[in-house]
Specification:
Elements (H helix, E strand, L loop, with lengths): L1 E7 L16 E2 L2 E2 H8 L7 E6 L3 H10 L5 E5 L6 H6 L11 E6 L7 H14 L3 E7 L8 E4 L5 E5 L6 H4 L3 E10 H7 L17 H4 L3 E5 L12 H21 L3 E2 L12 E2 L4 E2 L4 E3 L3 E2 L4 E2 L4 E3 L2 E2 L4 E2 L3 E3 L2 E2 L4 E2 L3 E3 L3 E3 L4 E4 L1 E4 L1 E3 L4 E4 L2 E3 L1 E3 L4 E2 L4 E3 L9 E3 L4 E2 L4 E3 L2 E3 L4 E2 L4 E2 L8 E2 L16
The structure holds uridine-diphosphate-N-acetylglucosamine and calcium ion.
Calcium ion binds next to loops.
Length: about 450
Amino acid sequence: MLAVAVLAAGKGTRMKSDLPKVLQPLAGSTLVQRVLASCEGLAPQRRLLIVGHQAQRVQATLEGSGAQGLEFVLQQPQLGTGHAVQQLLHPLAGFEGDVLVLNGDVPLLRPETLELLLARHRSSGAAVTLLTARLADPTGYGRVVANGAAEVSAIVEHRDCNDEQRRIDLINAGIYCFNWAKLAAVLPGLTTDNDQGELYLTDTVALLSPAMHVEVADADELNGINDRLQLAQCEAVLQQRLREHWMREGVTFVDPSSCTLSEGTRFGRDVVVEPQCHFRGHAVIGDGCRIGPGCLIDNATLGDQVEAVYSVVRDARVDANCAIGPYAQLRPGAELSEGCRVGNFVEIKNSTLASGVKVNHLSYIGDADLGANVNVGAGTITANYDGVRKHRTVIGAGSKTGANSVLVAPITLGSGVTVGAGSTLTRDVPSGALALGRARQLVRENWQGPS
Ligand code: UD1
Ligand code: CA
């Protein structure tokens, strides 16, 4: 039997934030979600989250993101990591098996590493097995006192170390696998005899035997986050991992380090990503797309062979062979069918464009439905808002609007309509008609102005 317990009750004082530390975001998901995700593959029988500081907010965030079968355990007040784990004595009373305890601020762990920890723990029969790494700069971490046979005699917190102990470069990652019955027996005996006056989980290690450690090769994996510097370092590690993954899957990044990805980003084959592109949320990019330079693609789906340059696409759908930008903005609810062209300084919101629509220059298309092959002239605006409500504009297939047209919604133009340049239309136009809504031009020949 396996239980997983994540420590997420601390305040995270060193972050200097109103947000609890475990809810800080990293590549689009929170620290605690990442920690929980890293142990999903172990299929534990129980999953417990110890919450305390802003407990309700942490709980609500996790419940809102569909955390099923998670047991929330309250630690109030927060008297240290040992005190946090003492809160499990009641919910895990009578539990037989191992408990994997993870600090909620160690977000880069790989599932394989946890599998290795668990396998070593079970094959050695240790009372506790913990993950360690050797760091060039171990400042701030607990030092692990161990012998050559990977047996641990103690963990000493940085601030409690003597000079000799401070020189130890083997650090405690805050990831432990305990035999629960043995841990439960020593937990009540913890004392606050340390610099912070807290109950330290790390003190249980000296009380348990045998205590073993598993040293990981990639120390980055064990990075703990206490402040925003470490948050940024972890973000950099994650971004590097994501880019490397997609490069191996056949995506070309012209300048990889200038681009950022979310976990939910997906690329097809032969995509080229130019410099300074950012993908967030569920960004799904089809085969052969060319994105950038300078794009933000947030929660949007792009079909095959789409090109986008210096543009923002958010909560939108763009089908195959469309061209976006430079300098276009597709806002929530923009849906472009195949072969559309949206050019410079064009904004599209909550609108459907059928195939082959062109909106090439300086337009706002909001709450509109455009039929196939509609050609929207430069500067055409759908006036969708009367100050209180939004209204729709419908333009039939093959229609053309002249430059600087204003279509005052609600309004329907049939198919094959031509709108003269500079028109302001307030009434529907039947199919095949020419619509003009502007003052007639006046010409006075040989005009003598005032003298
Ligand atoms: C801890 C370890 C240290 C290790 C380091 C790894 C202890 C005493 N020290 O130090 O050996 O090198 O992690 O990153 O464990 N928490 C609670 N309740 C509390 C206090 C903390 O749930 O009362 C949670 C925090 O939310 C956090 C985790 O425990 O997720 C670790 O706490 P933190 O204060 O960051 O410990 P470190 O000082 O980093
Ligand atoms: Ca920490």
